[in-house]
Amino acid sequence: MAVPVPRIGRLPSGARDAITDVGGVTVGHATLDAGDVHTGVTVVRPHGGDPYLQRVPAGFTVLNGFGKSVGLMQVEELGVLEAPIALTNTFSVPAVAAAQIRQCMAANPECGRGLPTLNPLVFECNDGFLNDIQRMAVTEADYLRAWSAASADFAQGSVGAGRGMTSFGVKGGIGSASRLAGAHTVGALVLANYGVRDNLVIAGHAVGAPVAAMPAEPEKGSIIILIATDAPLDARQLRRLSLRAGAGLARTGSVFGHGSGDIALAFSTAYTLPQRPIEPMPAVAMLHDALLDGLFQAVADSVEQAILHALWRATSFVGRDGHMRPALADLLRDAQPHASAASGLFTVEPT
């Protein structure tokens, strides 16, 4: 009998319980799965237009900086996104960044000439245990395939950038969730590739026995957390939202370990900021700071839920050189008859 995914928090979810419950946000994958190559690209598009011309406000938090992302310096300075957000493996960051630049130049011939250069935005995690990362297999075509596939409905688990990822000694990957905070929606998407086996916490319950058969390893993974909201917030407020992603991450047992690159980025779809100076800047009434607590709660809950979705929807498989990661859902199912009834872990309502 399958073990249902625990439901985190009391806030209601959007219709999909995914980041795409925030209107206009879409997600697409390109998955590479042949021989010793188990990797891919995941693209998050903030809206259906050209983000280079119609930028969205954003802010981010580096919880632990053991990472090789591209584009964060300019986001910190200007507080905007001007490219789709791309996720991939560590060694494929340059190829995906180049693909974003070429895509922008094709759509905007004045990019880097009459208009500013593009700030590509690419995040990464190291999938080298299951994927032959030295092959550097991801290409420009893979990025474009993920971009073209972006939709409100998308797969989670061992897909796209999540194909070769590991969390807590089991299979990691892509997960997403959403929560409604009053009139506003908050959505999270994670690329989960972090965690020490013995630290795993599920819905407030320490989980040791189901994964005890897996060897303990030091923390040397990463997690990328993306937060979208339709609340009218500025870059400063969005940075504050991104910081609260750490609360949801910590609930799962992360201590933001030395070798883990833990980065959270939040953006708003409530308005756009024009690239061309001849276009007027919008006059937007921002949400009052004193009203942010509901959004903070929604961020923490949706991040924790997205991580559980990544773990539950990932599938077991054997990667390069025979390296294997089991699916957590399979381990929990096998351990269910021996679990303590008092824990409540295996009797929660499914999402």
From TrEMBL:
Pfam families: Peptidase_S58
Gene3D superfamilies (alphabetical): L-amino peptidase D-ALA esterase/amidase (3.60.70.12)
InterPro entries (alphabetical): ArgJ-like_dom_sf, Peptidase_S58_DmpA
A GO MF term: aminopeptidase activity
Annotated TM spans: none
Similarity field: Belongs to the peptidase S58 family.
Name this polypeptide is given: S58 family peptidase
